[in-house]
Amino acid sequence: MEKQSEDRQPNNSERNAKWWYSTFHNVTAMVGAGVLGLPFSMAALGWGPGLIILILSWIITLYTLWQMVEMHEMVPGKRLDTYNELGQHAFGEKLGLWIVMPQQLVVQVGVDIVYMVTGGASLQKFHNTVCPSCKPIKLSFFIMIFASAQFVLCHLPNLNSLSSVSFVAAVMSFCYSAIAWVGSVHKGVQANVQYTSKATTSAGSVFNFFNALGSVAFAYAGHNVVLEIQSTIPSTPEKPSKGPMWKGVIFAYMVVALCYFPVAIIGYYVFGNEVKDNILMSLEKPAWLIAMANFFVVLHVIGSYQIYAMPVFDFIENKVLVEKLNFKSSKILRFVVRNVYVGK
């Protein structure tokens, strides 16, 4: 029995996480390389709409996250540890599963694919910046290098075991965001800077507006794993998990604000409508600083990948293979499932 519990370790198997773990996990899940594209989104939206959308997105997503935290223990004597369980409570056991499960898997697997490419691309930019005279290397090779780190980390058993990785990733997200806006301040407002839209047609303006709206919405993603994060926090009738979880969320959103608002506002103010879709490309120099920022992105995305992958591992291993298909829970099963997922 002891061996089985060692082999089979779902995300909620260790409910001993501290409140600051939720801060690390939420920052790692939410803040991504998309923050570097916020000035470009501001250029498409303009000062007024851009600031309104940025602030409203922060408020609305914080409110919806509060709702998720409250719903985690809304059923007396039971914890809704996953979106699947929440969906089953709302719509019934079968219908709820099929309404929620496909959507969550599409989001989480899709985000992991994006992060795999982003990690490889940032590693390539780091290489090209550090060694501009070196022979060009294809992006696919850098993606394979990035994946090698995931092949190692994917064998950590659950979210709790990712706390150190998540902490490093959260710090890295703050660091490359700081490089983006501090570098912009140092560069100074560009000559003949303009803040009008570059679109020459009404259709172009509308397309750019909605594209920017989507970019801002994507930047505030991260709710997909909030229930799984909360499931790792201990709870008693006297001290429910929503207390420490909400405390961690507040601190996480303070970090998000410190990352997003300076980058978006200062980046747009300095470069205007000429800002690139990645503000690091607008900074250009010094090369060592750009290389450092790209390397920080790589380290952050390494952690983000695992935050989104862990619930997928949990679902495939425990819900599908063990409970539905009667596979024996073992380290071999975990080894195969996780390696196949990363190498997919």
TrEMBL record:
Amino acid transporter transmembrane domain: from which residue to which, for each copy? Answer: 16-342
List residues traversing the bilayer. Answer: 20-40, 46-66, 139-158, 164-182, 249-271, 287-308
Where would you find this protein in the cell? Cell membrane; Endomembrane system
Question: Which InterPro entries does this UniProt record tie to the protein?
Answer: AA_transpt_TM
Q: How does it sit in the membrane?
A: Multi-pass membrane protein
* Alphabetical UniProt keywords: Amino-acid transport, Auxin signaling pathway, Cell membrane, Membrane, Symport, Transmembrane, Transmembrane helix, Transport
Q: Which GO terms describe its molecular function?
A: symporter activity
| Gene3D superfamilies reported in the protein's UniProt record | Amino acid/polyamine transporter I (1.20.1740.10)
Name a GO CC annotation attached to this entry.
Answer: plasma membrane
Its Gene Ontology biological processes?
A: amino acid transport; auxin-activated signaling pathway
Q: Domain of life, per the record?
A: Eukaryota
Q: Which Pfam families match?
A: Aa_trans (PF01490)
What does the similarity note say? Belongs to the amino acid/polyamine transporter 2 family. Amino acid/auxin permease (AAAP) (TC 2.A.18.1) subfamily.
User: What's this chain's function?
Assistant: Carrier protein involved in proton-driven auxin influx. Mediates the formation of auxin gradient from developing leaves (site of auxin biosynthesis) to tips by contributing to the loading of auxin in vascular tissues and facilitating acropetal (base to tip) auxin transport within inner tissues of the root apex, and basipetal (tip to base) auxin transport within outer tissues of the root apex. May be involved in lateral roots and nodules formation.
Q: What name appears for this protein in its UniProt entry?
A: Transmembrane amino acid transporter family protein
Organism in which the protein naturally occurs = Medicago truncatula (Barrel medic)
| Name of the gene this protein is made from | 25487877
